[in-house]
Amino acid sequence: MMTSFPSDFLWGSATAAYQIEGAATEGGRTPSIWDTYSHTPGRTLNGDTGDVAADHYHRWPTDLEIMKELGLQAYRFSISWSRVQPGGRGPLNPEGVAFYRGLVEALVAAGIRPVVTLYHWDLPQELEDEGGWANRETAYAFAEYARLMARELGDAITVWTTLNEPWCSAYLGYASGVHAPGRTEPAAALAAVHHLNLAHGLAAIAIREELGEGTQLSITLNLHVIRPDDPSSAADQDAVRRIDGLANRVFLGPLLGHGYPQDVIDDAAHVSDFAFVQDGDTELIAQRLDVLGVNYYSTTRVRAFDGEGEPDQADGHGNSAATPWVGTEGQVEFVQQPGPYTAMGWNIDPSGMHDLLMRLHREHPGVPMMITENGAAFHDVVSEDGAVHDRDRTQYLHDHIDAVGRAREDGADVRGYFVWSLLDNFEWGYGYDRRFGVVRVDYDTQERTIKDSGRWYARLIASGQLPDVGAVTPVPAVP
Ligand code: FCB
Questions:
Q1: Is the model's pLDDT at 126 over the cut of 60?
Q2: What pTM value is reported for the model?
């Protein structure tokens, strides 16, 4: 049976400021931690930086035309904090604000709903110099920035998302160091988890104070689907519990009003006493979520480490001598999973999407969800006809959107889907080597080409029904 979606299901695509904008030093923008990190030798593949990226800062009108051609109903993008508020404190920079206001007004005029992320990993460097997310003050600075942006962009925004994937900000940024700011301090990573949660709560309060209760508020999490290597092993099940705590429950708990899970606090007692959680914080964090943003790419498989040799570390989160899984050293192994794989080395398993949505539906009923990211990197080939026949990406999207449809049929309240990504872009530590776009970017010329997956996605949006993978409706080329 063909999977279909209701007419009010929101179809969109997602991007993030540092990954596409470029114009790193223009219009009054000051460095973020990703500028510093990517300019540090050895940090990113080929030494790539976001200095130019997809040059979206200058080419956004072209990109908007592409969005229209694809028939996108919504566009999820992030605001570069240091572009609108250089240094992360003080008055807004009118030139930076004007860039986003122009984009938002044009989106609205085109009937494309703006879904804003206030923080997609690009902390102003000055705030990192004062301790970054390990410093409680950063949460208050973030709330002030959120308030000012709510005042500026106001009602034009369909959904305000506070943070993208705080898991990555905290653990990859402060524990394993494969993301900016590149620190390897486990205790600081746990403090960062809490201060990110707090930042979300304070920002949600500030945005509602500015825009009223009708404003749609969200946070996007990269929740992990964690499977035991041997389901019959109690030790492997306990490894799942530990990783689930650090990956999922340390966010879902406080955000949804249940506080921090005691088992996580106990497991990490040798790293931190959690003294950073002050009286009243859990109430501040637990603000009503109008929608939960869910990012899903692949699954995770763990087993209890038996102490023999070196533990496997195939968690898909990059290579580092330091683990992002704070406090689990010597306890848990991340097992290589069966393929197929994307160019990221991530296993392809659409059943994980269904399992994740059903778990959230069961454990947190009444919280509407949107898939705010899902997609795949493959090493695309430009054919002689100039097209990108990315059947592997189309298949990936087909199978995962089908899984979303099945979860909906099984009762999960999923209201939208955003493909990652609109454009090929700066894939963090992997630089320009990994392409996630449904639109190709030629980095020499900045020319854009809608890939077959993009044409397939356009057909899905137009019909509300999942087309066959081979079915592609020609879309006229962008002039
Ligand atoms: C997510 C990020 C996004 C992109 C995809 C591939 O973790 O939110 O920016 O890098 O992965």
A1: yes
A2: 0.97
Q: Structure tokens of 285?
A: 């964090």
CB 21 within 8 A of CB 15: no
Closest ligand 1 atom to residue 168 Cα is 7
Ligand 1 center–CA 173 separation, angstroms: 14
| 459 Cα to the center of ligand 1, angstroms | 25
Q: Is the pLDDT of residue 478 over 70?
A: no
165 is catalytic: yes
**Ligand 1 proximity of 428 Cβ (cutoff 6 Å):** yes
List the residue whose alpha carbon is closest to atom 10 of ligand 1: 427
Residue 379, token pair as written in the block: 């090493």
Would you say the CB of residue 456 lies under 6 angstroms from ligand 1? no
Torsion sign over Cα 451, 457, 462, 463: positive
Residue 476's pLDDT band, with cuts at 50, 70 and 90, is very low
Per annotation, catalytic residue among 21, 128, 373, 427:
373
Active site residue 308: no
Q: Is 436 in the pocket of ligand 1 (CB under 6 A)?
A: yes
Residue 378 above 70 pLDDT? yes
Dist. CA 169 → ligand 1 center (Å)? 11
Q: Which residues contact 344 (CB under 8 A, 6 or more apart)?
A: 297, 316, 376, 377, 430, 434
Mention every residue, 6+ apart, whose C-beta is less than 8 A from residue 393: 375, 376, 378, 380, 438, 451, 453
Q: What percentage of residues in the chain have a pLDDT greater than 90? A: 96
Centroid of chain to Cα 157: 18
Residue 50 CA: distances (Å) to CA of 18, 23, 56, 157, 426:
6, 9, 11, 26, 6
Sequence-ordered alpha helix ranges (H) in 154-226: 166-167, 173-174, 186-211
Measured N-to-C along each axis, helices 94-109 and 137-153 cross at an angle, to the nearest 10 degrees, of 50
> Which DSSP string corresponds to 72-110?
-SEEEEE--HHHHSGGGSSS--HHHHHHHHHHHHHHHHT
Cβ(16) to ligand 1 under 6 A?
A: yes
pLDDT for 2-26, tens place per residue?
788 999 999 999 999 999 999 999 9
Are 255 and 294 in contact by the 8 Å Cβ rule? The answer is no
pLDDT tens-digit series, residues 328-342: 999 999 999 999 999
Report angle CA 445, 451, 454 to the nearest 5 degrees. Answer: 125
**Whether the CB of 420 sits within 6 Å of ligand 1:** yes
Q: Check residue 4 and give its pLDDT.
A: 87
